């Protein structure tokens, strides 16, 4: 049996967005519980950090280029550069590092 | 033009740049699964789920069951539940349920990142415009990947693919500078994430699942060790 590609796509769209919407339907008010508030405060930073490393070293052709981009990216963000500049800096670091 | 819309579009541009590169490589996989360019663009625009889409396309390629596709979507996208839950606390109490739902549909790793960094209660127009700008490029990238396959030289793809991570870094570092607890949480996240990607058994879990488990574990630990004071939340 050959399944329909369009049904695969519609299913993916429906399920993916349902997951995103679910908390909005269930949680309408401010959460008072101190643990949950603290937990949710840390979630974004931890998630992004977990997804950045070691993935950044696997995205590039050579792992070293990814490491260099990570270090220089952290330094430039620490010095106050914004989203776009840091992104461009990371891309350039990889591009240059992989020339050699 | 509304200031939030302009700001959202501006912050959406670096995201769009990275998205194009990632979606392009996703398109190459979608092509193997037999998707047409418009199908890839449709799926990409309305899901914007890198790991989720990757999982789905590999399943479509082997003509898997619909149930498997549903299961794949749930596991690879489960982290969005955490992100949306965090966002529920970012709205002002006047934000309507429709706006909350639309904002939730915009959630990707990056859009969530910039939305949570928005000063004060979230202006939903900011999130929408960033999501639309970047979503269009995500869809275009996927369609181009299906059409053009391997035209971009590999060193270009390699360089573009770190744009996303550069943005992640720019989101997490400034708060880490202000709050030592965040700095330590990030350092621990890097370390454990690295260990889990190399450890036997755990490394065989999908990266989406590992992300969820580590996020829950580390955030819970941080919340126990360094709970937030009520006053800290007034931002």
Question: If you had to describe this structure to a student in words, what would you say it looks like?
Answer:
The complex is a heterodimer of chains A (100) and B (235). Chain A is mostly helical and 100 residues long. Chain A has 5 helices and no strands. In chain A, helix 4 runs antiparallel to helix 5. The model of chain A has no long low-confidence stretch (mean pLDDT 89). Chain B is 76% helix and 0% strand. Chain B contains 12 helices and no strands. Chain B has helices at 3-32, 37-47, 50-61, 66-77, 79-88, 97-106, 109-116, 124-148, 154-160, 163-178, 180-198, 207-225. Chain B is globular and about 55 Å long. The model of chain B has no long low-confidence stretch (mean pLDDT 87). Chains A and B meet through helix 1, helix 2, helix 3, helix 4 and helix 5 of A and helix 1, helix 2, helix 3, helix 4 and helix 5 of B.
Question: What's a quick, concise take on this entry?
Answer:
Chain A has 100 residues and is mainly α. Helix content of chain A is 77%, strand content 0%.
